[in-house]
User: Fold this.
Amino acid sequence: MLLYLLALNPTDSVTQGFLPAAARLGLSVTVLTDSPAPHQRAYARLPSPPDVLKCDVREFREVVSLISTRRAPNAVFTNSDHLQTQAALAADYFGLPAKNWKATLRAKDKGLLRRHLARCGLDTVWSAELAPGEAAATLTELDVPLPCVVKPREGVASEDVELVDDMDQLVRCCEDVRRRRPGAALVVEEFLVGEQYTLETLGDGTRRHVVCGFRAEPSPPPYFIDAVYEFVPTHPPAVLEQVLAQLDELGVGLGACHTEFIVQADARARIIEVNYRAVGDQTDLMMADLLEIPYFEYVLGVHLGRPLPADLGARTDMRMHNLAVCADRAGTLTEAPGPSDLVSGGVRLSYRPVRALGERHEHYHSNRDFLGLVWAMGQDEEALRRAAAEFVAANRWEITP
Assistant:
């Protein structure tokens, strides 16, 4: 059986999650990407490296055309935020299980998501769009609720997302983002105040499972970096009902979905954004380990038309604490610990580098600033927090300007 996997840059989710799962399922994999060389390097040490073909994967017509010249697919899949609609349209063209392309588009386009939920009467978040080429000063003509959030309409990983307090700052922020992202459309929206959580779901088109969730501790304003994640086996029923109702209206069904939302003081759940793919930044890898389920096989299976079991068989007695080590300035990483796996006092701790020694990066004020991720697993939540903090305190990350 043949799986076509669409990708832009290599990711841990694909390299360490989906490709090994595909091998366990007996699938042959062909990766379609606009940048083959990084993928070939990333997969070189895998026992069964996939074929890698160059393709303009942002254009679904090119994807369909290339696949049609080769062996017929059994599934077309992507875990990229940017390529969900292209994969959905290509899968549908070949008569394969496919996500609803309208749902993938609503999830990707943050302005469209806000308008759709408002029209359905489920939630109205004040928002406005700044079209490509439109002067940021036009926002001063609107009754913008302050403080507010500026974000790229189709951005990911909290990149160029910023909280602003007044109109002058709003205009400057939009102009700054425009310099970094020429031609990008921006969304300005109401700042949602409350506790931040995620919901991880998985559906086969008929049945949808709530896999788990996480409580997030974002970095201090004005930026939104998810520096801490803590495992939440389940959310309160009233909160879960609200989030699932909004996902239903958006059309989210088949496959994995990672939803970020705020719970306000009155227990009202309000969606921040919907990422119609598996949770990233290695969280999916640790989640599968913690729950002891073949998560990646399940995700690929539904794209092959296989139903999910009535019970995923997830373990429920364990807890997990994630602490991200973030760069605080631009420069070259000159000192950092290597990968670690430690077990002590009922805590299993893993550290995985995200940035390699010798790499130079700008300061992004986003998840792209991650230097490494500390994961602590066990049954005592306080012990997990303490173990992660002690690991960070005992090690050194040095950035040279």
Summary: The longest strand covers residues 208-218. Residues 202 and 256 are 4 Å apart (CA to CA). The first helix runs from residue 12 to 24. DSSP finds eleven helices and 20 strands in the chain.
